[in-house]
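Q: I'm building a small set of examples for a reading group on sequence design. Run inverse folding on the following structure and report the sequence directly after it, with nothing in between.
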């Protein structure tokens, strides 16, 4: 997993909790990398799971809530780090429809070693269905990113999330009148 995900996660922990909390969770997680992340490095995806678990133990907040909150925060950060992807788009559904076929394709050019999920999308006017597939199973992160996107475009949409029999997760979004 790209280092940018780790650096942004620890940045969020420093902002919302403290620098001491960052040091604490790194120390408690016994990480193969030692926790010295750079945004361009690549690290084992299991390390983010250890860090979130350690944060959950210390704060009492459930892991899924922390991951969703991180996804929300991460969208804001990615849109600042990569304004070219949000620039010229003023609608959340139009943006989300582009994540798989345009945005993550460009991300892969910038970071050839990125491990990205797959989204199969179906658009029908004010509705968008996104089917998420990833061997890393980060559907809580996807939910947080989608919510961060809705916040960014200041749009209120109805969102439903269901697990599918094949293990993928569908997100159904519908624009409210
Ligand atoms: C400015 C827009 C975006 C940029 C620049 C971006 C970039 C990235 C990058 C660099 C990674 C890390 C890849 C790795 O770990 O090696 C990533 C992962 C991921 N992205 Fe995006 N992304 C964007 C928007 C979104 C949105 C809106 C969603 C949700 C619909 C999304 C869903 C995900 C998920 C769930 C992962 C975790 C990897 C996995 O699930 O397997 N991304 N993205």
């Amino acid at each position: 997993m790209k280092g940018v995900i780790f650096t942004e996660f620890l940045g969020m922990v420093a902002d919302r909790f403290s620098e001491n909390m960052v040091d604490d969770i790194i120390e408690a997680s016994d990480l193969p990398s030692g926790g010295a992340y750079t945004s361009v490095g690549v690290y084992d995806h299991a390390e983010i799971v250890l860090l979130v678990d350690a944060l959950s133990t210390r704060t009492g907040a459930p892991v899924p809530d922390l991951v969703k909150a991180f996804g929300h925060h991460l969208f804001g950060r990615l849109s600042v780090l990569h304004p070219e992807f949000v620039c010229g788009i003023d609608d959340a559904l139009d943006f989300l429809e582009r994540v798989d076929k345009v945005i993550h394709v460009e991300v892969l050019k910038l970071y050839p070693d990125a491990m990205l999920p797959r989204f199969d999308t179906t658009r029908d006017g004010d509705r968008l269905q996104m089917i998420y597939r990833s061997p890393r199973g980060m559907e809580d992160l996807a939910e947080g990113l989608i919510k961060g996107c809705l916040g960014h475009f200041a749009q209120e949409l109805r969102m439903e999330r269901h697990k599918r029999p094949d293990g993928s997760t569908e997100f159904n979004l519908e624009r409210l009148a």
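The helical segments are 3-16, 19-29, 46-59, 63-81, 83-86, 92-110, 139-152.
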